[in-house]
Amino acid sequence: MVTRLVKSIKEKKEFSALPDAFVKEKTVAYLVEHKQRAERLEHNQYNEKSKEYKTAVKEMRASLREIHGVFQKATDRKRKKLLAQYWAAKGRGEKRKALDKLLQSHQSTNERRNHYASLYKELFTNEEPQHILDLGCGLNPLAYDWLPNRPAYTCCDISREETALINAFFAKKHVDGKASTCNLLRPETRKRLVTSPADTVLLFKMVDTLEAQERNSSKALITGMLQNKNIKRIIISFATKSIGGRTFRTGNQDNWFTEFLRQQRLGWHVTTTSNEEFYDVKQ
Fold first, then answer.
1. Is residue 241 located within the same domain as residue 133?
2. Is residue 104 situated within a structural domain?
3. Element housing 164 (H / E)
4. pTM for this prediction
5. With contact defined as beta carbons under 8 Å apart, do 115 and 121 qualify?
6. What is the per-residue pLDDT for 71?
7. What is the Cα–Cα distance from 56 to 37, expressed in whole angstroms?
8. Is 263 inside a domain boundary?
9. How many domains is the chain partitioned into structurally?
10. What's the CA angle centered on 68, arms 105 and 181, to 5 degrees?
């Protein structure tokens, strides 16, 4: 049904050149933020003639107009140029500035870039990861230098362009890492996680995205990972603000998620930044 919304949004010429994956990502985020509307759309079987459907398309187009400029900065060609500037930069300060520009090219890392140092210090100083598995990674692996050690790093994302960029980054920095494409909704992907050698899993801003596409899919994903005795920690994050900056999640508000953790008899600690909430879950 999300695919139908994406098609309707792109029927307007100004959005026709946008990649389906990009529009789909923003559509899923919209449905997560507007849960009641999403429920009504589902109840009406995403009827294109319904008022709810037309309103959703109109509001999504308005949102895309606001962030379209951000997307334009995040084209594959632009990112490759920014990565080249990073390699060419001299000195620690210049490299940090170049990396900062690269992190700005992705919405999530842009929001997280001023928090990486303190966030990773809190999460990893007393418990250094030996092998990280980053699911739905985006450009998060580019923050590798903020880690307190040099762990192996396996990651995956639905974007081929982003995983190719990350592999180039890993190779030049001599990181024992690999990025590949994946779809976390597919059972075969979940099965592979059971044999992963990673001890630490990062699942940043993915639970809501998965749930918007397939109910209980994030539970299935996490339950599968718990079967892997190599995995000691799963760090799961939720956005606390919308794209426009409106607060829509605070504290342990997501009762279904914390109840799920209790049912699995898992312990967790919550770390927060100005726009994201991190559950450090341990088994």
1. yes
2. no
3. helix 160-173
4. 0.76
5. no
6. 40
7. 8
8. yes
9. 2
10. 50
Task: Identify whether the C-beta of residue 147 lies closer than 8 Å to the C-beta of residue 123.
Answer: no
Q: Residue 165 corresponds to which tokens in the numbers above?
A: 């960029």
| Alpha-carbon span 209 to 207, nearest angstrom | 5
pLDDT of 69 strictly over 50: no
Task: Identify the three-state secondary structure at position 74.
Answer: coil
pLDDT beyond 90 at 144? yes
- Residues 6 or more apart in contact with residue 130 via CB below 8 angstroms: 151, 152, 199, 200
Q: Can you name the residues that pair with 181 across neighbouring β-strands?
A: 157
Concatenating the DSSP letter of every residue in 196-213 gives: ---SEEEEET-HHHHHHH
Same domain? For 148 and 62 the reply is: no
In a domain, 5, yes or no: yes
Distance CA 171, CA 38 (A): 42
Look at residues 164, 172, 174 and name the one whose alpha carbon lies nearest to residue 139: 164
Single residue among 30, 51, 71 that ends a domain in this structure: 71
Domain that holds residue 40: 1-71
pLDDT for 239: 87
Residue with tokens 């603000």: 241
Name which of 59-73, 94-108, 249-263 the model is least confident about: 59-73
Say yes or no: 67 and 128 in one domain.
no
Residue with tokens 């992907």: 189
Say whether both 254 and 185 belong to one domain: yes
Tokens 């999640």 identify what position?
249
Q: Is residue 134 part of a domain?
A: yes
Q: Dmax over Cα atoms in the chain, in whole Å?
A: 58
Report the pLDDT averaged over residues 149-165: 90
Structural domain ending residue among the three candidates 37, 55, 71: 71
